[in-house]
Hints:
Blueprint: E1 2-13, E2 18-29, E3 35-38, E4 48-50, E5 54-59, H1 63-67, E6 72-78, E7 84-97, H2 112-121, E8 131-137, E9 144-149, E10 155-164, H3 166-179, E11 188-197, H4 199-207, E12 211-214, H5 217-221, E13 229-230
Parallel strand pairs: 10-11, 11-12
Antiparallel strand pairs: 1-2, 1-7, 2-3, 3-4, 5-6, 6-7, 8-9, 9-10, 12-13
GO molecular function: endonuclease activity
EC number: 3.1.-.-
Main location: cytoplasm
Amino acid sequence: MRLVIARCSVDYTGRLNAHLPLATRLLVHKGDGSLLVHSDGGSYKPLNWMSPPCRLDVEIPDEESASAGVVEHWRVTHAKTGDALLVRIYEVLHDSSHELGLDPGLQKDGVEADLQRLLAEQVDVIGENLTLVRREFPTAIGPVDLLLRDPAGGTIAVEVKRRGDIDGVEQLTRYLELLGRDPHLAPVTGVFAAQEIKPQAKVLAADRGIRCVTLDYEGMKGIESGAPRLF
Length: 231
């Protein structure tokens, strides 16, 4: 990755035209060929950019540009669309290159798989004296996140989401209908568990006889205490 801080102007031509007048900016030329133009503001978004596949050509400025103080042209052309980004460099204040290597990618904390794993280890969050039958219990239309047994021998199907909406309730409803046909599992009740459950989902769940549980993810990890809230 090459990082250049320079006094520059930028012109984008193609499907749309855009102009950035002369100012000091950060130019980021990444290993995938993309170029991003940043200012010292505007949050994380670049002011302008060219996405790959594209090619950067460094050109000697013409006489008119040189007389205006331009020392270098960066022309970035998109390989498919032909869109072009022309950066006129007036002064380079910093220029460095860094080999970052392969990135392992973003590892999210609190995704549904984490919630499911924690809930399988702490089924008392759903109710007292429950036992885990299986995670990812297979059905003909997909796996149920958790299948539990209550002390009376009844089955509880649990659908786990980070953010619970109507689609999640509909998904659990289909699982309940299918599981309820199995005499070895019936009677089957449903629990919709999520960190956040939308009001419309709660209304639909109540109408379907499904209980909602709001999960305290930080508390389940043991970072801070907190009891789940039942609705």
